[in-house]
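Input/output pair, single chain:
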Amino acid sequence: MVPAEPADDDVPDVAGVRDDVVDALLTFVRSLRRAGVDVPSNAALVAARALVEVGFDDEERARAALRAAFVTRAEDVAAFDRLFAEFWRRLDAHLDGDDNSGGFVDNGPEGALAPLGDDAGAGEEADESDEAETGDGAESAGAAASVLAKSLQPGPGSDEEDATTATYSPAGRPETVTVDAAPLDEDESLDAAVELLVGALATLRDRRWRYAPSGRRADARRALRRSVSTGGAVVSVPERARRASDLRALALVDVSRSVLDTVDRGFLLRFLRTMSAHLRRGRVFFFDSEVRDVTDAFDAPTTTAAVQALERVETEWGGGTRIGHAVGTVRRDYPAAVDRRTVAFIVSDGLEMGDVSDLEDGMTWLARQAHSVLWLNPLVTSSTYEPTAAGMAAALPFVDGLFPFADAGDITELARQLEQHGTSGRIGFEHDPRRMRLTMNAHDQT
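Output:
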């Protein structure tokens, strides 16, 4: 006997519940950060896995699991508890189907979740039929949590998954580039920092050698070749040095929701416009779920004009993070953008939501083709940051240096390290004296 198919009303809407859980969890992360809680970069993934383990039946178990994932400092416990209570109420109402607020909203004071309406607790005195419905919701919620954990960990996914779950944002849906006018004012300190950076790039040497009467190294091979004509006697020892190169830049800029929620958008755009003005030999690509060549926009005379140019062509940002896809697209569609004279800058938080193997393949090609690869990560500004996220960890072996990216001071430090050590020296956030001082201060306090 073939079992009868369940009616549509009896089938849990796992996709719908999944979206609600994703919205709630990621909004909770952003609310905590805006309230001053130092949430680790991979906390959302850890929290999703924790919810899979503890489920949605016991609030205290869920609270303990999420606190372990999100809270790293004792002083953040009070803020976590305050925001968790509202997060749980909204999540519970969504899973029971009682929330008519139209989604999770995080525009309250200090990043707090918007309060529920008066009807939020209407189901507290439910009868047996209501309990049965709640049980169905719990089953679909459990399935949703399992899907959530998979969607927040690196791996291949459909375009639909990328659009809804691939970022630390409620939906990760792209929107047209818009920025408040005030943050677009030109910044003299940033201009000076970029000028230092461009000067440091000019000091980098090519991979090829040049031969000259005076240089940095003795060339024994060339001396032996010359000795053939003199019966084996070495008359002179030529020297060689790296050939000075006419470097250009490639900027691959992650404009996914997770990055836009972390970095100052005005600073990001001012940096790109100022770099383009100083170099005049470079390419700029925006990427989230898709890749966009925005080089022409940043040739504008001001940052405001650059944003207007982006708006005219309806450039979008704020989707999901697919770094490997972006590098692969440049490799396939813009191969002339990278050669041995190119310093590649990748601006990204490294929270890859595509296939990590694609990222590894792309970074292998980029490291081989480019003069050097420098990674600017807004999360590195935290003194406790470690590159443990799967995407960042996969890309790190192919990167010449990983640096913080939040203000003009970070660009100045990048320029200082490049000028002193080049791209083959000991450079990166680990060698940043500012980070070392913070670490030493924290150690002294403990």
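The longest strand covers residues 205-212. The chain has three domains: 11-107+125-153, 182-199+246-445, 208-244.
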